[in-house]
Model the fold of this input.
Amino acid sequence: MEILDGKATSAAIKADLKVKVNEMVNAGHKAPHLVAILVGENPASKAYVGNKIKFCQEVGYRSTLLTFNADITEDQLHKEIHKLNNDPEVDGYIVQLPLPKHISEDKILEIVNPEKDVDGFHPVNVGKMVSGLPSYLPATPYGITKIMEHYGISAEGKFVVILGRSHIVGRPMSILLSQSRPYGNGTVVVCHSRTKNLEELTRKADILVAAIGIPQFVKAEMVKDGAVIIDVGINRIDDTTRTRGWRLVGDVDFDAVSEKASYITPVPGGVGPMTIAGLMLNCYHAAQKRV
Ligand code: NDP
Done:
C-alpha cells in the first residue's frame, strides 16, 4: 500500500507555481491576485481561508482577505462582489462557504463573474467542464486529478465508484473521471443516500472516491483488494486522548481499509491540501489570461 501524500504533492505544485510566478513577474507582469471573502466567525472557514492566503504568500501571489460581519446584508455582499467583478486588479476570488442563512449561496453563484470564478462553481464553468471545454475545474476534484497524475494513476478502463453527488465534489468528480482526459476514461457509478446496493458496488470498485461526510463510513469489507481509495471526507470525532478533545477523520476507516488498498489518501494530509492546490492552479490560469 502506498500513501497518496497530498501535502507532498501540493508542495511540488507550490514549488512549480513559485517558479512560474517569478517568470511572470520578471517578464514585467503583475503576480496573480486572489481575493478571499470571509463572512462571519466560523472557525473552520477562518482556518481554510487562512491556509489559502498562506499558500498565496508562499508562491508569490498577491492576496487580499475581505472580512465581513455575519450580519452583512445580501445586498451589501452583492455590491462587494460586483466591485471584484469590475476590478481589473483582481484575477480571481472566492466566497468562503458556508454563508450565514440569510444570504443565498445560489444567488451569489449567479453574480460571480465566470472569468474570476476560481472555485469553478459558476454554471458557465460547470457547463464548459461537462462539455469538455477549457474551464476552471472545481477545486477539490481538480486537486484529486492532480494527485492521481502525480502518482501515475488513471481511471482508464477502471470501474470507479463515487460516494456522494454534491455539486462541489461527487458530481464533478464523476464527470471528470468518465471523460476522455489523461486521468479519465473510467466507467463511473455515482452513489447517494437512495442507492440500494451500495456495498455490492463499492466491493467492485477499482477506484473508490468517498465524499459523503460520514466518519469512517467505508469499512474494509466494502473494499476490493488493491483498490485505489480517495477519501475526501473531513469529519471531527471525539478523542479524549487529544488535549483539544477531537481529531479529524475521513469518510474511510483508514486503518482497516489501508490493509487492502493499493493507494490511499490519509485524512488529514490527503485531499485537503490538494483542494487548495487546485484553487491556486485556477488562480494562476486566471492571471495567465491577462498576460
Ligand atoms: P454534501 O453533504 O454536499 O453531500 C454528501 C453526499 O453524500 C450527498 O450526495 C448524499 O446523498 C451522500 N450521502 C449521505 N449519506 C449517504 C449514505 N449513507 N450513503 C450514500 N450516500 C450518502 O457533502 P460534500 O460533497 O460537500 O462533502 C463531503 C465530505 O467531503 C464532507 O466530509 C466534507 O467536509 C468533505 N469535503 C472535503 C473537502 C476537502 O478539501 N478535503 C472539500 C469539500 C468537502 P444525497 O444527495 O442523496 O443526499
Summary: The radius of gyration is 19 Å.
